[in-house]
Amino acid sequence: MTTNPAPTHTTSTDREAAVVEIRDLRKSFGSVEVLTNITASIKQGEVVCVIGPSGSGKSTLLRCINLLEQPSGGTVLVDGIDVTDPDCDIDQVRSRMGMVFQQFNLFSHLTVLENCTMAQQVVHKRSKAEAQKVARANLEKVGLGDRADDFPAQLSGGQQQRVAIARALSMDPELMLFDEPTSALDPELVGDVLAVMRRLASEGMTMIVVTHEMAFAREVADRVIFMDGGVIVEDGHPDRVIGDPQHHRTRTFLKRVLDPTHVDPEADVDPDDERRSRIKEAELSARAQPQLPGDITDPRF
Ligand SMILES: Nc1ncnc2c1ncn2[C@@H]1O[C@H](COP(=O)(O)OP(=O)(O)OP(=O)(O)O)[C@@H](O)[C@H]1O
Ligand SMILES: [Mg+2]
């Protein structure tokens, strides 16, 4: 059997080793830069929750780590291997990372068990029997040992997401990336998925979790990264970033997440927010100019 059991504990030496090292990462789509000089390090066994408003670049950051997106600049090292190096064997690096998306992306025509065995057989070249043994163990772990022969459509959203987690775990990843794994679920189904993730964290899995579940982040994360406008605004212990945020933008975001009806009158005049200030200045200067030079319909003429 070629599988490695999930570590049940991490030593202090293990925790010193960076599984992911991101240095000056930049990503642009066309002329729009959506990640600006991101630098962060995730150590073995660490659980890092990434929070931030829609469009702040959280998914793009995860996608640059497993090279679903090609970074425009900077480096991403996974276990010391530079995934941005053109000579890097990205399939080999990717096989060390499990990725769980908002949408579960299960194959609807395959059973739960088949969904969890296919990649093992193809990538790890495991025999069918071996892959099934690993898959059944992981389905048991996520509480779905009795649903192996069902098709995805016979399961609830929360159960399908747990199958997606079991599928990822069956590849023996060293690192799990989660992109809002519970945000497509009905509220009553969220708890079971978070319970599985909580258990993984307690077993020592290295995890990067994009989430809006602040209670989960506060309880489970070793660190919380708050992103806004393509930059890391705060990175620290959850008690500090969520409990005592230092930055106006973090406070505004948390107020909105914790109370969606909250309206912050200062939200658009944050003195620390250089990017917004620049956009604001550009907007104001554009408004000061006639839209069409010489346009006689412009009231300023
Ligand atoms: N393939 C793409 N082409 C062009 N722009 C993109 C692409 N993917 C993302 N973007 C843009 O990059 C920015 C960051 O997007 P991203 O999906 O990373 O944000 P996010 O923080 O994950 O948001 P959400 O919370 O809504 O999922 C957004 O402005 C988005 O429109
Ligand atoms: Mg996203």
Structure description:
It is a peripheral membrane protein. It holds the Pfam family ABC_tran. This is Amino acid ABC transporter ATP-binding protein. This protein is α/β, with parallel strands linked by helices. Helix content is 37%, strand content 21%. It is built from 11 helices and 10 strands. It has a 6-stranded mixed sheet with strand order 6-7-8-3-9-10, with helices on both faces. A 4-stranded antiparallel sheet has the order 2-1-4-5. The chain is globular, with a radius of gyration of 22 Å. The termini are far apart. Residues 1-15 and 271-301 have low confidence and may be disordered.
Notable characteristics:
cell membrane; 11 helices; binds adenosine-5'-triphosphate; binds magnesium ion; 301 residues; ATP-binding; disordered C terminus; 10 strands; globular; alpha/beta; 6-stranded mixed sheet
Radius of gyration: 22 Å
Structural class: alpha/beta
End-to-end C-alpha gap: 80 Å
Strands, count: 10
Residues in β-strands, percent: 15-25%
Low-pLDDT windows of residues: 1-15, 271-301
What binds here, in terms of ligands, is: adenosine-5'-triphosphate, magnesium ion
- Major beta-sheet overview: 6 strands, mixed
* Strand order of the biggest β-sheet: 6-7-8-3-9-10
Tally of helical segments: 11
Principal-axis shape: globular
Order of helices and strands: HEEEHEEHEHHHEHEHEEHHH
User: Mean pLDDT, nearest integer?
Assistant: 85
**Helical content class:** 25-40%
